Structure formats: structure tokens, C-alpha cells
Amino acid sequence: MTDERTRDRALDDTPAGPRDVPLDDLPADPARLGPTVIDGALRARAAHVDAERRRRDDLWSRGFTRRRFLAGAGMAGVAGLGAQLATARASYGVAPGTGTLVVVFLRGGMDGLSVLVPADDPHLPTARPGIGVPAGALLPLTRGFGLHPALTPLHNLWKVGAFTAVPAVSTPDISRSHFQAQDCLERGGSGTGTNEGWLDRVLDTLGPGTTFRAMGSNATVPRALAGDQRALAVDRLEHFRLGGGEEVHPQTFEALRALYTGVDHPISQDTTTTLEALDIARLVVAADLQPAAPYPEGEFAARLADVARLIKAGVGLRVACVDVGGWDMHTNLGTVESGAMTRQLTLLGETLGAFATDLGDHLADVTVVAMTEFGRRVQQNANAGTDHGRGAAVLLIGGGLAAGTVPGAWHGLAPEGLDRGDVPGWNDYRDVLAEVVTRRLGVGAGALATVFPGHRVQPLGVMR
Amino acid sequence: MTDDEPGDVSAVTGGRARWRRRTVIAGLASTGVGAAALGATRILPGTGDAAPHPGAAGDTVRRPADADGFANRDESYASALESTERIAATRSKPPRLLFDTAGEAAAATEVAAPTILDTSDPVLHLLRRTTFGPTPALVDEARAAGIDAWLAAQLSPAGIDDPQADAVVSRLPLALLEPDAVRAAIPRGELFAAEEYARATLARQIWSRRQLLEVMTDFWANHLNVTTPSNETWDNAASWHEGVIRAHALGSFTDMLLAAMRNPAMLRYLTNVGSRKDAVNENLGRELLELHTVGVASGYTEDDVRHSAHILTGRTVANDRGPGVEGDFVYDPGLHWTGPVTVLDFTHPNDTPDGGLEVGDAYLRHLAAHPATAQTIARKLAVRFVSDMPPGTLVDRLAETYLAEGTAIVPVLSMLFRSAEFWAAAGQKVRRPLDDAVGSARVLGVEPAPEGDPLVHPLLWWSGQMGQRPLAWPSPNGYPEVHAAWRSASGRLTAWNYHRALVMGWDEVPVVPPEELVAGRPQATVGEYVDSLCRRLCLQTFEPEHRDALIAFVGADASTPVAGSALPDRVQYLVPLVLDSPYFLLR
């Protein structure tokens, strides 16, 4: 190895690439570049990132690393490298577009029958004598469905056409395992062509975007965004800054960039992305966009507040993922007055309500999809909880929804129609998601075959 | 190319073809009903049609394996990243795959994929994979002993004196207490003892000389994850982690599994304590199959899951109303579900309540020695030690050894280190956050505070900030191992901040002062100093472009004398940069 490296370096005749544009060379008054200070600064940053990526790509395509790579591998290597270059190049254009999809993953299997309740179904009180939501307590929707009373903020959105929900939604996965069902949902299927996350394939079809075009608001990238499309994982914006030795930060960033140049490994891309995101995040935090509504306490709310801040700052965010766990209620689910479900739904409703209020006019360009890996068994269990089931409720918030409807198939809870005691998957997740990404993000009809391979999409009518 | 794996599609198509899906284990043949039924499961939009409901009972397949998903989370994540595959796919076929000794394998095997890591000395590769991070002293020790003698000692850790780790752990008085002593020492439900056990774990990872034991203990603690501290482990963290995980980490998996399924920590964590014949809780029965042993690919059915749970009924924890000492394991025949049970190829009449514990042990022995379990564990070990996408030939070889040796772990590890695939894979893996947290502390010479609190908790706090506090993963599947699951801007940034925190002394954790790191090494010029620092922290010098980046950071030329340069003022910022570099992050 060492010999080969030395030999390849000797052959290397890479000239210096285009001059890097130091950030200090940006116009003194970035505001002149755009309608707001932050917008102008972002455009300037984008130009800088563009130049920087060109320089790095130039090193890649002509430098020692590539030649070394070719010496070590056959034609498969060429194809692999080409794919990486294409990916990098495709993602630096500035095409913020309009509209943001926010996916809230309710991890653990949320009980749909406690959330989107078939109020008049005679089988529900029988199956759930201790934990069923009484019809009289429900917030009325349509088609005989009502919302859990802890979800008043969502019912307020329903009244203005900014909320709807779909019952009995399922993945094709049938294992009733948390991991299997989440994996299937986040990959958008389970067969060939679904190795990347489904949102990674959405990004692929959307083409160029900004550094912040896709973000998981979490410590690591969610499976739905895993792939080669450079999604960010940013835990919390206000903690997202380098500490210590501020006087040498510019030199530190420059050194980090250089240390990862010419390294043929995904960690190189991770580092570049981190440095770009740090630069943008600093601007966003400095812009001091205070929330326009009070959020509840806790990480989930803080993360959604970060998403709202990025949307309002106009950083080109197209896809954001936020997780909230705590739905795996095998024991003591509780009643509408108190208990785990009421507590959890109160948090969910207040957080999503605050998010909608905080966004204000921006809400018209945003769709929130709150979904979970599976619903729960219809019959309550011996511990006043519910076991893993199948069909679940999906909640949608934002602009462009089919107002005043609860879309999707529903056939009631008569035991003979159930799937081994569970609400069946009468509606397919992929049909809900396909419609949302088509209308909200502009994914073309042809591209849906790539996003959800092997699935013939049949819209349920969740969007106008 | 993976020529070493017959039938691997990537060897034929090169480009987008993905890692071969794990097919149903031979001998448990698929009936093939799954895929077709899955594709058909959908209906037209609408609300009131009375057509048959394809999602309803009757046409739904009952084997998780039929979903054609990935067998586990790490395999799924790794497959998402094309570059993972690209790196794994650059392997050339080693001329010989298995050797008589690890040393022979190391000497005869060429590193397959290009890497910036120095691959001239296989000892560096060995230490990057089998420890929580090499240090110059450890490299000297392993070189002096030789690969085979060093490994032999690590595989018999009782023979290694470990005074520093022992001393630190002894200063954490609650850490190793037995459950009854914990219950006597702290208020019920408080997490002080479990928290202290987590500190002891991190302390051993940093300071123990039994490094391979620590790596394997971490491996098994994730394989049989019980989140610690947690309400379920307030009194039994040491009983679980010492008595189940550490005691058998280099023993046999059968023994570990038998102990695990009689330990209150696991029985509480996966809610078997609430499972009884008239209200069976499937949680533990399912995870035992899916995560701990045979895996989804074995083809078990939902009925198998229910029987698995039935077999485990009666294994519970004594409370103040029942027999036994509160908080201890107890088998309660009155809770046991009786009747014939079948799980995969295990069957038993299971006809008496009193015999239920024996039936369970027979079932666990059967599962531990099952060929599908051998695949699960062999692949996991190969992912941990070799590659995020390990070659199937290696996995098969390890699985065969596991079965032939009656689930003993040491022979499997010996086989792994005698395999060319291990030595060819240098530089392909990335330190997980915990590997970075512990490895940085080790190479910076972090010491326990000399008296009073040994100051482990700031390091534990940082490992949590980085996303991988030891023992704390919240779900039963354990922390991810593969890089694709850890990619994160926040993760990178937090590691950079952690390096600065240690070097600049933000938490007052004692480290070697940055200006003393290169003591005894050439340091007259900036170039010499940078080279010495890189050797001290990363055990090699950097490629010229990367060396130049560090020299430019100091604002000097390579030949500039250190005295009078900006380097002495900047060394506290230069040291973290070396730890931020790919030479530290890759392994």
C-alpha cells in the first residue's frame, strides 16, 4: 500500500484548483443581494459553497486520489466514483423552491383508535371497556370520526381546513415488529429498489438544493433519509456551533476542509456538509427569529421550533424529519381524563398547534405528516393497554389539504372484518405519501415509480 | 470486487446492485407465499364498498421473513449508503483465506481497499479493531509481544493484571454491589447504583488493560441490550452486566443466554414479569427470536412468537406479595402456560407447570445452538471487527466454528483473526462515537482524578452528547455499529467540541498537557513538531497535503523553527485538529 501511494503521488500533477473564495471576501453588505439580510447572506454563502465544491471536485477528478483509486480497483470503481461526483455536484445548486414536507415519526406504534376514533362503531366500547374514548368526549370531524379531546389544537386547525387524518393506514410489512415495520415504512417498501430511505429517493428526484434542503432534527440521520443525498442531522440549532478558540475558528474550518480533501470515504462528505451547515446555522441563530407562539417544554417541541425557524429563515428546507417516541403503550393506556395516552396526545397536539401558529403565513407552503409504524390491536389487553396491531392513523397538517374530509377506506370494527383482531391496512402509506410529495414537493408522476418501486400509486384524496 | 463470495450479485453488475439479501436459512425452506400476497394487498380508494378486504384475516402471511426486509437494523442502514458498498467492493480476492495463526494471516495478507491509514504494520490494524483505541505504549507492548502472543493474552484476560481499572472501579462504591446490597443502600427506584455502573463501564474502557474483553463486553451488552440506568435496572445493573454479560463475554453464548433469561433486568426490561398463562406478553418471546438468536431470516411465524412467549411464562421477579426475596428471579409455576409448544424445529409437550423452567432452558439451549443463531452472531462479529458489509464467506466460516465449538466465543474470535478478510479490511471502518470518546481519552492520557471522585462522569456526559453513552441505548436492539447509521453533522461537530474540551481542560479532567505530548520526539521545526504530534496521537504521519494543512494552520512553513513561531500559542488548538482528522476517525 505504502509503495503504491508513493508511486501515485509521484505521478500526480494536479494544478491548484480555482482559488478558494474566503468568506471574508463576501460583499460588505450582503443585504444588497436579497430582500432580507439573511436571504442575501444565504445567497452569498451559496455562491461561496458553489466555488468551494467546484474546487474540491476539481481536485477529486484530477488529483492523486482518483488515480490511486483506479489503480486499486477495476471498472466497478470508476462507476462508483462517478456516482459520488455526480451526487456532490447535483446538490450545490441554489434552487430553494417552495414548500416543505415535515415528517413527524411517532415511534412505538400509536394507537389510531385512541386518536381518530370511529365514534359510532358499536364494537369499540365492547372491545375497550376500560380505555375506549367515549363518543360524547370526542371532537367531531366527519364520516362518524372524532378526535381525542386532548387534540383541541388540531381540531382548531380542522375548522380552518388545515388538518385532516387518514384511518387504517399500513405498510406492506406484516411482522408486528417495531424494527421491521419502521424499516419498511422508512424505506418506502421492502423489496428491490428500497435500500435508500424513501425520502432520500425523493431528494434524488428533486435534484439540486441547498445545504439545509433535508434535515433530521436528531442526533443521527433517520432511516428515511439514509442514502447518498447528503441529508443533515442537526440535533438542536442553538447547540450547533464550534466551541473554544474563536480567534482561530476560520483557520480551524479551513484546516478541517483540507484534512478531509482527497479522502475516499463518506466521512469526507460528512465533514464538508457539517462545515457548510455550521456556517448557515450561525446566520440563522444570529437572525434571532423568535417563535411566534409558545411551545410546550421538551425536546420534541424544541426540535419542531428549530424546523419552523429554518423555514422562516428561508434556507431552502424541503424535507425535515422529527421523531417523538413513547407510543408503545402495552400497559395502562389510561382514560381521556388522565394517563399515558392523554398526556402524550396533549403534548403532540400542543406542539403541532404551536408549530402551525408559529409558521403563520408559511403554513400554506408546509405539509406535516405525522405517522407511526403500526396501530394497535382493537381489543384491549389484560394490562389495560394494547398490543401491536396493524392499521394506524396518519395525521396531516398544513396548506393544500382536502378540507373537511377524512379520506381513505374504512370498513368498521366488526370482528369478521379485522386482521387477526387488528384494524387491517385498508389504506397504504405509500398512497398517502405519494400524494403529499407530488403536491407539496413537486415530485413528478414518473418519479414516483422510483420513490416507491413496485407500487402502483392510487391517491386517496388527502390533498386538494 | 468481492470475488471471494460466490454468487454475490455485486461482483457481476458492479454498479447499483446491492448486498445480497439474507435468504431464508437453508433447511427452513420458504413456502414462497409471502411476496405474492404482499404485492396484492391494496384496495381502491373509497369509503363504502363492500368488496372483500384484502388486508383482512385470511390472506395475510404470518412470517416476518416474508416481508423480504433486511434481517437487522445495521444491515439495512449499511445498504443505504452506496459508498459503503463501494469501499467493501474494492476488495481484491486474497489468494488464501485462512491461516494457522493470526500472525501468519497478518504477514501474508495485503490490505485490499485504498486507505490513508498506514497499513505497513498490521499491529496498528489489530489494535484499532480489538481495543477502544491504540496508544503509543500499547503499540510498543503489542509489537514486543507479537500478534499471536498479544491476542492469546487478551483472549485469556484473567491472566492480565489490571491495577488501574480495578483501582478506579473500587472508588465507585455502589457500582459492583449485589442487588440485595443495592436495595439496602439506596432508596427504592433511585438510579445511583446503575449510574455508577455506567461510570465503571466507561472507566474500564479507558483504563483496563483487558481491552479485547472490554470490546466484547460492549458487543454483548448491545446484543442483549438492557438500557442502563433505567427503572428496570435500579437495583440489578451489576448483577446483569457482571453476572450475565461480562462473565460470559469470552465464554459460551449458551451460558450467557441461559443466565440472561433468568435475570430480573431482562425479565423486567422486556416485560416478561407481567406475562402469565391467561395473559401472555409476547415482548420477550419475540425479541428473543428476532434480536437475540435466530433472527427474522430464520423464517419463524407469528405462531412461533406466541409459543416462544408461552415457554417463557413463569419466569418472573419476586415482589413483596409472592415467594422469594423481592427483586430476585423466581420461577412461578402458577403463571406457566402448559401445552405442546413448537418454535421452528423445537417441540416439547410442556405438560406440567413445575417443568416449565426446564422446558425453557431446553428451548434456550436449542436456540443458542441453532444454525440461524450462528449466522446472526457470526455476522454481527464480522460487522464489529471487519467491515460494515462483511464478506459472506467469512460469516459462514465463523458460523461453522460457532456451531462446531458448542457456541464458544473464543474459537470464533480466533478464527476471525486467522482469516485474511480481517487483515485485508484495514481502514474501512469508522470509529463510532463511543470509540472516539474513549479513544481520545486514552491517547490523550486522561487520568482519574487522584483522590475523591475519579471524574469519570464528565467523560460519561460527553459520550452521551456524542450519542453513545455506554449501556444507554433506549431500545432492545442495541447501538448501531455501522457508519451509515451514525452519519450526522451534529455528531461530527460534537466530536470536535469534545476534543477541544479534553485538550483545553473545560471539565478539569486530567490529561497530558498539550505542550508535553511530543516530549522526547523531534520538535525543532514546525514540520517535525507536526509529524511528532501525528505519530503521538494517530500513530503515523499524514499525507503531504494534510500535513501542509496543519502547518498552514500554525501560520508557518515546515522548516520554521518552533521557537519564535506561533505554534506554542496554538498547540492547544492544533492537538484537537489532529484528533478531528480522518487519520483518527478511520480504523
Summarize the SSE layout with pairings.
The complex is a heterodimer of chains A (464) and B (587).
Chain A: H1 2-11, H2 37-62, H3 64-72, H4 75-90, E1 100-106, E2 116-118, H5 123-127, E3 139-140, E4 145-147, H6 152-159, E5 163-170, H7 178-187, H8 198-206, E6 214-216, E7 232-233, H9 249-259, H10 266-287, H11 299-313, E8 319-324, H12 340-359, E9 366-372, E10 392-398, E11 427-428, H13 429-441, H14 448-451
Chain B: H1 9-13, H2 34-40, H3 73-80, H4 82-89, H5 102-108, H6 122-130, H7 136-145, H8 147-155, H9 163-170, H10 179-185, H11 192-207, H12 211-223, H13 237-248, H14 253-260, H15 264-269, H16 283-292, H17 302-312, E1 315-317, E2 329-331, E3 341-343, E4 346-348, H18 356-368, H19 371-385, H20 392-404, H21 409-417, H22 420-424, H23 433-443, H24 457-465, H25 489-504, H26 526-538, H27 544-554, H28 567-580, H29 582-585
Antiparallel strand pairs in B: 1-2, 3-4
Explain this structure to me?
- Chain A contains 14 helices and 11 strands.
- Chain A has 464 residues and is α/β, with parallel strands linked by helices.
- The longest helix of chain A has 26 residues, at 37-62.
- Helices cover 49% and strands 2% of the residues of chain B.
- In chain B, the strands form 2 sheets. Chain B has a two-stranded antiparallel ribbon with strand order 1-2. Chain B has a two-stranded antiparallel ribbon with strand order 3-4.
- The longest helix of chain B has 16 residues, at 192-207.
- Residues 1-61 of chain B have low confidence and may be disordered.
- The interface between A and B is large, with 112 and 107 residues.
